[in-house]
Each structure stands twice: as structure tokens, then as C-alpha cells.
Automatic annotation (TrEMBL):
Name of the protein in its database record: Mannosyl-3-phosphoglycerate synthase
Keyword Transferase: yes
Record EC number: 2.4.1.217
One term of GO molecular function: mannosyl-3-phosphoglycerate synthase activity
Species lineage: Bacteria, Bacillati, Actinomycetota, Actinomycetes, Micromonosporales
Amino acid sequence: MLVSNSARHPVDRYEIEVQTLEQYCRAAERPAIVLHQRDPGVAAAFKAAGMPELIDDDGLVRAGKGEAMLIGMAVAALTGRGYVGYIDADNYVPGAVHEYVKVYAAGLHLAANPYAMVRISWHSKPKLRDGRLFFSRRGRSSEITNEFLNRLVAEYSGFGTEVIATGNAGEHALSLDLGLRMRLAGGFAVEPFEFVELFEQFGGVLESAHPEVMASSVPVLQIETRNPHFHDNKGEDHVQGMRMQALNVLYHSPVSLPPVREAIVEFMVAQGALAPGEEPPRERIYPPVGSLELDLLRDVLETEAGTFRQIGVAARVTQLRPRQVLPGLPAPEVVTSA
Ligand SMILES: Nc1nc2c(ncn2[C@@H]2O[C@H](COP(=O)(O)OP(=O)(O)O)[C@@H](O)[C@H]2O)c(=O)[nH]1
Ligand SMILES: [Mg+2]
């Protein structure tokens, strides 16, 4: 599935993406679903399905990575999928993506648990340094996010740890049985918040709303790949923004502890990202996708979202049934449109 937020003017980049995907689907005999995040019909569908929080002042779904991932998960659910795996769109090496997908499948199989997540820890990120490629083992944002997540784990366990290696992992997959129960954060807070949300809901510190998940535990498999992660370099400001979004969600979590909060504020002030005495801002946290009325979402997507299309072997997509995972959701129906 492609959830795009690419520009449509003056060049319609979205249309180019769709054409490329159509060619791929024809050659590979694979189906795909596409939509544009800023299609007014997509906003109407999420509003109708019960998530008005996703809509901005222009009446469209907010721009942001977490928002795009939420759309992807909802569409996966309404077409009957059991799992969702995410791939960033700015990867320069198709072979690396192939490896991610195999790792997802292997990890979810090995987990042997209905509530499982696989997160990719890439082997290295190449950077240009003095005209040479340097295969750095660490990412500028991940390093910080992981450090503070590990600090939280260490505060609880009493043991220093580096157990969390994938706080910012854009490449990750999970079962929908788990995903539909999780709240997702907006923007670049989305990946680190997944850990925070797992700690909150299933960490055993707060009471869980899902005892059935607690009973089986939630394995998170962090798997290191062989291929380097070669992607678009968006510069220092982008990295700084991403780090702070990660720390904001960790700071405001009810499972965060005073020493961790203090260390976060100290770091932010030292970075010039926070004035002394100020509190870190809050990120947007959306309700679980499982709370959406999926039949309404589908109806409005089909009737109002002009960009929402199924490509390729249509029959294989359309015959799937929406999942009914959480109690209280309306009964699933067969998806009928092509
Ligand atoms: N659909 C959509 N995707 C987004 C948006 N923002 C970020 N992304 C996706 O998130 C990926 C990661 O963002 P990027 O800026 O590359 O961050 P980095 O790789 O962590 O430095 C991008 O490659 C996009 O695929 C958005 O507003 N909408
Ligand atoms: Mg990137």
C-alpha cells in the first residue's frame, strides 16, 4: 500500500508514483492500494469513522509520518490483513527493502505470538565524510532516543542496559491484533511512542485494559540487517526535530520516572531546544485504530476519496473481509468495490 503525501502541483508527483506502482503491479502480478493523505475524501472517511482528531484546520488529515502510518494500518484492517509492515519511502536501495520484508516475515513467524512486533536495526547508515563513504553504526536521532528509552528501562530494573536498539525504527512490522489496540503518535513521535505505549499498556506498571494480551506477553524482536540503510539526508534541523519529538513523548508518559524526566529536560536545555524552566511540549496521540468504525471508513473512502484505488489483481484484494478484532465493533462485511 502507498500512503503518499507528495506534492500534486505544479507537477503531480502523486500521479507519477501511482503510475510507477501500476507498472510494478502489472509486472509482478501483485495487488496494491493507493491513496493520498491530503485527499479531502480521506479526511471525511476518518471523521465519519470516529477519529476527528486526525483532521487539521484545513479539514484534511494532518501531514505527518504517524498520521500516514495510522491510515495504512486502518486500510490493512479493513481489507482483512493480519499484519502490517512499514517501509520509509526515501530508501535508495530496493534490495534493502527486500531484506526488510523477509525479516518481518521471519520475525513474526519466530515470535509465534498473536501480539508481536519486529523492528529493524539496520547494520549501518552510510554518510559522506571528506569525500569518502563512512558506514556509521549509529544514527544521529536513534542514538539519543535509544539512550533515554534504555535509561527508563534501567531505572525500573536497576540494571544498566542497551536492550533497546530500535527506538526510531521506521522499518517495523506488527500483527494487527497488537496494532489495533495501540495508540499511535503523530509525526516523527510515532516510532518511539510505540515503545512508550507498549510500556504503558503491557509493561506491568499501569493496569492493562487488555488482560488477554498481558497473558501472552508482547515479544518485540529487534533484528539487525546486513544491508546498509541508504536514504535521503534531510539535514541537522530535521534530526533535531525528530529527537525532540521522541523525548517529548517519553517525558510525558505516566510510566516515565523523575530521574529520566530530569535528564530529558537537562539534555533539551543543553541542546537549546528548551528554555530553562519550561516543560517539553506534548505530541499528538491518537486513539487506537481498533476504535474506528471500519465499515463507515470503507464506505466513505469508496464514495468520496478520489485517490483511493485498488491496483492490480483486484479480486484478491476485494474478496478479503475486514477484521473484527476489538469487541463492540460492527460486524464485518465483504469489500465490494474494485
Ligand atoms: N505519507 C507520509 N509519509 C511521511 C510523512 N513524513 C514522513 N513520511 C515518511 O517517513 C519517512 C521517514 O522520514 P524521513 O524524513 O526520511 O526521516 P528519517 O529517515 O528518519 O531521517 C519518509 O521517507 C516518508 O516515507 C508524511 O507527512 N506523510
Ligand atoms: Mg529517511
